[in-house]
From TrEMBL:
SUPFAM superfamilies: ClpP/crotonase. It holds the Pfam family Peptidase_S49. This is Signal peptide peptidase SppA. InterPro entries: ClpP/crotonase-like_dom_sf, Pept_S49_pIV, Pept_S49_SppA, Peptidase_S49, S49_SppA_67K_type_N, S49_SppA_C.
Length: 591
């Protein structure tokens, strides 16, 4: 099925490839001739506009997509916004005399609660400078309101909508689809709570999975409601009643409840003009994030060469070679060794945002982290996720820092295999046959059935993998194996819960991890620079990479234009997950 789709799409892609490459060449020449790298001239009484209605990554290019308004079937017009860039801009704006405040444009942020918490903390710090933070939107999602509630003034369009009803977690299950397609999933796991295999063998959540899921979303919800309560002066019990009764869905009720104020855009614009002390007929000076990061930095550059390096590891752990939105052990090890051997780098902060993946790749990276910390301090900083294979990486560090809303733990191993024999034979009319030199020569060589003996071999390997994972975790956390196993078993925890049970050392964001790294390397404030690795790819680098990868172009075109193709790609992704995995529950959506 995938091959048919692939060849069909390749034909379509070929029709447009020449045109696309021509566009890239012309745009590249234009970009090279432009002054995009020149310093942005910042005006007095400027307002930093943070448009957070885009997918958020840990590290992204400062450049905007010049083709954002250009209709095309092959590359996304919505580029990621980088958390590290947002935090850096807010720290600069805090001491920049030309920036008078922040306008927060956030309706539906595509980000995790841990990332939003980092931004929220940075905005709190920004407000302490005496400058304002105003938020305005036509509607607010649950996540958007959590972030916007930190504002001095929070406004909603009178005809808008506030989604405030608590947090839900949703999983997608494939068992019935597999039954209809005559696909037999075979799973091997250790741990009562290792629920990543459930979508393939169940139609709903197991009692254990419901227990752990309810536990961690309650923990996250408590953190969020506590912060909203502090910002808005509304008690948590009252917020609970508002959420349960959906009172805030009506914008006028939300205003009466003290959650926000109602305003049309022109009225809000007048409020901004008053805040920066300009006339009603004067024009506001709004500065977008990418432009501000190209303006003169008001923070003096640190002299000398001492650095604390932030090494970003973001995405699913896929094996030796990673790609867009994934982590490969070869790529990670190469970067880490460079930092380990660089004498100017005095400490390393691992910034992890990963639900896990390949257990082999996780172990390779864990080993390299142990070698690095023999040379210099290594601190793990957890973002939205550092679970299973993500935790495998973190446990090798000198210390672990997590946000209270981080999802972590999930210490466990599983393997999966799809028997496609009946699917091929009965649904597609395809049969297979083979000859062997030995009894098990065909073992794991095709998508066929496994004998009971072969299943026992895989289960034993999964058991051994779990023993290895838990033993290394116990050593890393300096606790007994018995205690470690009592909180492992594949169970997912929030950062706040993990701190209480000893899986995490400190609660906080990236700034806290940098602070710990400086302490351990005996660096004082003002003695070091912070550098981020690997360097974020520019828009044109990403575009050129996509253009030279036929498969990437095919996938982007299909997902944008063929609704049914998403299911095909998802099934292909599931098939590629066969093997030994250290991964958290699949398809988790928090809202």
């Amino acid at each position: 099925m995938w091959q048919f789709v692939k060849y069909t799409l390749a034909t379509i892609v070929g029709m447009f490839l020449f045109l696309l490459v021509s566009i890239i060449l012309v745009a590249g020449i234009g970009s090279a001739m432009s002054s995009s790298d020149s310093e942005y001239e910042l005006k007095e009484n400027s307002i930093l506009k943070l448009d957070l209605n885009r997918p958020m990554g840990e590290n992204a290019s400062n450049e905007d997509n010049p083709f954002s308004d250009f209709p095309n079937p092959f590359f996304s017009s919505t580029e990621k916004i980088g958390l590290i860039q947002i935090i850096s801009a807010l720290e600069r704006a805090r001491v920049d005399d030309k920036i008078k405040g922040v306008y927060l444009d956030v309706s539906f942020p595509i980000a995790g609660y841990a990332q939003l918490s980092e931004i929220r903390d940075a905005l709190e710090k920004f407000k302490k400078s005496g400058k304002f933070v105003y938020a305005y939107s036509n509607s607010y999602s649950e996540k958007a309101y959590y972030l916007a509630s930190v504002s001095n003034q929070l406004y909603l369009n009178p005809a808008g909508l506030l989604d405030f009803n608590g947090i839900s977690v949703q999983y997608m299950f494939y068992k019935k689809a597999f039954d209809k397609l005559e696909i037999e999933p075979m799973v091997f796991r250790v741990g009562t709570y290792k629920s990543a295999v459930e979508p393939f063998i169940r139609e709903d959540m197991s009692p254990e999975n419901k227990e752990q899921s309810l536990s961690f979303i309650r923990s996250i919800n408590q953190v969020i409601f506590n912060k909203i309560s502090q910002s808005k002066g509304i008690s948590v019990p009252r917020l609970d009643r508002i959420a349960d009764s959906l009172q805030a869905m009506n914008p006028h009720n939300a205003e009466k409840l003290g959650m926000l104020k109602l305003s049309y855009w022109d009225q809000f614009e007048s409020l901004l003009k008053k805040a920066v002390k300009i006339g009603e007929k004067d024009k506001l000076t709004m500065v977008k994030l990418s432009d501000y990061l190209h303006a003169k930095n008001p923070i003096p550059e640190v002299e000398g060469t001492k650095k604390i390096a932030i090494l970003v590891a973001e995405g699913e752990i896929v094996g030796t070679r990673g790609g867009e939105g994934s982590i490969g052990s070869d790529d990670f090890v190469k970067e880490l060794r460079k930092l380990r051997d660089n004498s100017s780098v005095k400490a390393i902060v691992l910034r992890i945002d990963s639900p896990g993946g390949s257990s082999l790749a996780s172990d390779i990276m864990w080993r390299e982290i142990l070698l690095a910390k023999k040379v210099k301090p290594v601190i793990a900083s957890m973002s939205n996720y550092a679970a299973s294979g993500g935790y495998y990486m973190a446990m090798g560090a000198d210390a672990i820092v997590a946000q209270p809303t981080t999802i972590t733990g999930s210490i466990g191993i599983f393997a999966q295999w799809l028997n496609l024999d009946n699917f091929f034979k009965n649904k597609l009319g395809i049969t297979q046959d083979h000859v062997n030199t030995h009894e098990h020569s065909h073992f794991l060589n095709s998508a066929g059935r496994l004998t009971d003996f072969e299943k026992s071999i895989i289960q034993n390997m999964v058991n051994e993998g779990y023993e290895s994972f838990t033993s290394k975790a116990a050593a890393g956390r300096k606790m007994s194996l018995e205690k470690l196993k009592s909180i492992a078993g594949g169970r997912v925890w929030t950062g706040e819960q993990a701190k209480k049970i000893g899986l995490v050392d400190e609660l906080g964001g990236l700034d806290k991890a940098i602070e710990l790294a400086a302490q351990k390397s005996k660096l004082k404030s003002g003695e070091y620079k912070v550098a981020v690795y690997p360097k974020a790819k520019s828009f044109f680098d990403t575009l050129l990479e996509s253009a030279t990868s036929a498969e990437a172009m095919e996938m982007r075109w299909a997902k944008s234009n063929l609704p049914w193709a998403k299911s095909v790609f998802e099934l292909d992704r599931l098939k590629k997950r066969e093997g030994f995995l250290a991964m958290m529950p699949y398809m988790m959506e928090l809202e």
